[in-house]
Amino acid sequence: MSVAATQVEIGDMISRTPGIKHGSPHIAGTGVLVRTIARWSHEGLLPEEIAAKYGFLQLHQVHAALAYYHANRAEIDADLARNDAEAEHFEAEARAGRL
Q1: Is 48 helix (H, G, I), strand (E, B) or coil?
Q2: pTM for this one?
Q3: 15-59: per-residue pLDDT in tens?
Q4: How far, in Å, CA of 37 to CA of 30, rounded?
Protein backbone atom coordinates (compact mmCIF):
# COMPACT_ATOMS: atom_id res chain seq x y z
CA MET A 1 0.00 0.00 0.00
CA SER A 2 1.39 3.39 -0.93
CA VAL A 3 1.51 6.38 1.38
CA ALA A 4 -0.87 8.27 -0.93
CA ALA A 5 -3.53 5.59 -0.46
CA THR A 6 -3.57 6.12 3.31
CA GLN A 7 -3.52 9.92 3.38
CA VAL A 8 -6.61 11.74 4.60
CA GLU A 9 -7.46 15.26 3.55
CA ILE A 10 -8.15 17.13 6.77
CA GLY A 11 -10.49 19.56 5.01
CA ASP A 12 -12.76 16.69 4.01
CA MET A 13 -13.27 15.41 7.56
CA ILE A 14 -15.88 17.99 8.63
CA SER A 15 -19.00 18.60 6.56
CA ARG A 16 -21.41 21.50 6.61
CA THR A 17 -24.22 21.04 4.13
CA PRO A 18 -27.54 22.91 4.03
CA GLY A 19 -30.33 20.46 4.66
CA ILE A 20 -28.14 18.00 6.56
CA LYS A 21 -28.13 18.47 10.34
CA HIS A 22 -29.60 21.94 9.74
CA GLY A 23 -26.29 22.97 8.17
CA SER A 24 -24.41 22.35 11.43
CA PRO A 25 -20.82 21.16 11.14
CA HIS A 26 -20.51 17.41 11.65
CA ILE A 27 -17.98 14.67 11.14
CA ALA A 28 -18.24 13.71 7.47
CA GLY A 29 -20.04 10.45 6.84
CA THR A 30 -21.53 10.37 10.34
CA GLY A 31 -24.33 12.10 12.15
CA VAL A 32 -22.01 13.29 14.91
CA LEU A 33 -22.06 17.06 15.33
CA VAL A 34 -18.93 19.03 16.14
CA ARG A 35 -20.82 20.66 19.01
CA THR A 36 -21.49 17.22 20.50
CA ILE A 37 -17.78 16.39 20.45
CA ALA A 38 -17.04 19.81 22.00
CA ARG A 39 -19.60 19.18 24.75
CA TRP A 40 -18.01 15.82 25.61
CA SER A 41 -14.62 17.51 25.70
CA HIS A 42 -15.98 20.25 27.99
CA GLU A 43 -17.23 17.51 30.31
CA GLY A 44 -13.68 16.23 30.63
CA LEU A 45 -13.65 13.29 28.23
CA LEU A 46 -10.39 12.67 26.41
CA PRO A 47 -10.49 12.24 22.62
CA GLU A 48 -9.87 8.51 23.06
CA GLU A 49 -12.84 8.26 25.42
CA ILE A 50 -15.08 10.16 23.02
CA ALA A 51 -14.14 7.85 20.14
CA ALA A 52 -14.76 4.79 22.35
CA LYS A 53 -18.14 6.17 23.45
CA TYR A 54 -19.36 6.04 19.85
CA GLY A 55 -17.53 2.91 18.78
CA PHE A 56 -17.59 3.80 15.09
CA LEU A 57 -15.57 7.02 15.30
CA GLN A 58 -11.86 6.95 14.74
CA LEU A 59 -9.53 9.03 16.86
CA HIS A 60 -8.51 11.25 13.94
CA GLN A 61 -12.18 12.14 13.38
CA VAL A 62 -12.56 13.28 16.99
CA HIS A 63 -9.38 15.34 16.71
CA ALA A 64 -10.67 16.90 13.47
CA ALA A 65 -13.91 17.87 15.22
CA LEU A 66 -11.97 19.37 18.12
CA ALA A 67 -9.71 21.27 15.73
CA TYR A 68 -12.77 22.64 13.95
CA TYR A 69 -14.27 23.62 17.30
CA HIS A 70 -11.13 25.46 18.41
CA ALA A 71 -10.89 27.26 15.06
CA ASN A 72 -14.58 28.29 15.30
CA ARG A 73 -15.03 28.45 19.06
CA ALA A 74 -17.30 31.53 19.20
CA GLU A 75 -19.79 30.04 16.74
CA ILE A 76 -19.88 26.59 18.35
CA ASP A 77 -20.06 27.99 21.89
CA ALA A 78 -22.99 30.21 20.85
CA ASP A 79 -24.70 27.15 19.36
CA LEU A 80 -24.13 25.19 22.58
CA ALA A 81 -25.52 28.07 24.66
CA ARG A 82 -28.59 28.30 22.40
CA ASN A 83 -29.23 24.57 22.76
CA ASP A 84 -28.80 24.75 26.54
CA ALA A 85 -31.24 27.67 26.78
CA GLU A 86 -33.78 25.83 24.64
CA ALA A 87 -33.47 22.69 26.78
CA GLU A 88 -33.89 24.73 29.97
CA HIS A 89 -36.99 26.39 28.50
CA PHE A 90 -38.58 23.03 27.63
CA GLU A 91 -37.73 21.61 31.06
CA ALA A 92 -39.34 24.63 32.75
CA GLU A 93 -42.43 24.27 30.56
CA ALA A 94 -42.66 20.57 31.39
CA ARG A 95 -42.31 21.23 35.11
CA ALA A 96 -45.06 23.84 34.87
CA GLY A 97 -47.30 21.32 33.08
CA ARG A 98 -47.49 23.35 29.86
CA LEU A 99 -46.09 20.68 27.58
Answers
A1: helix
A2: 0.82
A3: 998 888 889 999 999 999 999 999 999 999 999 999 999 999 999
A4: 12
- Report the greatest alpha carbon distance in the chain: 62
The total domain count for the chain is 1
**For range 52-80, the mean pLDDT:** 96
Instruction: Identify whether 87 is part of a domain.
Output: no
For the residues of 21-34, what is the DSSP string, one character each?
A: GGG--EETTS--BH
- Quick one: which of 11, 33, 46 has its CA closest to 82? 33
Where in the sequence is the domain holding 18, given as residue range(s)?
A: 8-72
Q: What is the CATH number of the domain that holds 29?
A: 1.10.10.10
In a domain, 82, yes or no: no
